[in-house]
Amino acid sequence: MSTTRNPRPAQRSSLGLVVLWLLFQEPLHVYRMQKLIEHQAKDRVVNVRSRASLYQTIERLMRLGLVEVHETVRTDNHPDRIVYAITDSGREAARQWLREMLSTTGGEYPEFIAAVSILFGLPPDEAREQLELREQKLAAELADTEESLEANPRVPRLFLLEEEYRRAVLQAELEWVRGIVDDLRHGRLTWSWEWLRDIAAQIGLPKTNEE
Predict the structure, then answer these.
(1) CA–CA distance from 202 to each of 17, 190, 193, 195 (Å)?
(2) CA-closest candidate to residue 176, choices 112, 106, 105
(3) Which of 170, 173, 159 is closest to 42 using CA atoms?
(4) In what side-by-side order are the strands of the sheet with 28-29?
(5) Residue 163 belongs to what H/E stretch?
(6) What is the pTM of this model?
(7) 26 by DSSP, 3-state: which?
(8) 127: buried, middle or exposed (CB in 10 Å: 19+, 13-18, 0-12)?
(9) 69: which strand partners?
(10) CA pair distance 162, 65, nearest whole angstrom
(11) Long-range CB contacts (< 8 A, 24+ apart) of 95-101?
(12) How far apart are CA 92 and CA 76, in angstroms?
């Protein structure tokens, strides 16, 4: 096993963590990785829509010294397959990433939060319509998650924690979105361009050192 160490700190990534933990178990080629990710439903928690994203992640992990080529498998019926293995540095990094991802908050910037912060960029009725679409999608995702949990009664809870978390997050977001939609529908939350201009004038803009 290689003990190659990379002097630069390895910036963590969700897909990188999943790849490293797959390689913790055994050396794998990319096709096998993709199948394991799908079989273990990890494609519900990381973005691996194409095999190209896996190759890009592995190339990055190799540059960081966390993954290395284990062997090249040659067959008559298939193209050569490169089998990858985790390095000792990769094992250390995987554990450290896991610690950081479990304990750290505030490092993520989801699109939805950014959109909510400028909800007033749309007229109230249009904003409500878009949130109603999100409400429908959230309800469908929640139903799918509930079905997934119920379909695996014999699977130990340890391997379903991500689905439990998904359910809790979906339930909370769905309740919040429904509340905002209801407030918009009944006029308890509203705005107009005139009101926005008045508020902007009252609050004012922060001055910079150049002014």
Answers:
(1) 48, 18, 14, 11
(2) 112
(3) 159
(4) 28-29, 81-86, 67-73
(5) helix 161-185
(6) 0.80
(7) coil
(8) buried
(9) 84
(10) 29
(11) 96/12, 97/10, 97/12, 97/16, 97/17, 97/20, 98/17, 100/12, 101/12, 101/14, 101/17
(12) 37
Q: Which of 65, 68, 80, 57 is nearest to 27 (CA)?
A: 68
Q: Which of 127, 133, 129 is nearest to 115 (CA)?
A: 127
Tokens of 182: 């209801």
Tokens at residue 92, please?
């250390």
Query: What is the residue-level pLDDT of the chain in tens, covering all 211 positions?
Result: 444 444 455 788 899 999 999 999 999 999 999 999 988 888 888 888 778 889 999 999 999 999 999 999 887 777 788 999 999 999 999 999 999 998 988 777 788 999 999 999 999 999 999 999 999 999 999 999 999 999 888 999 999 999 999 999 999 999 999 999 999 999 999 999 999 999 888 887 555 454 4
| Residue position matching structure tokens 């990710």 | 37
Cα–Cα–Cα angle for 124, 133, 163, nearest 5°? 130
What's the number of CA atoms in the CB half-sphere (13 Å) around residue 47? 5
SS3 state at 109 = coil
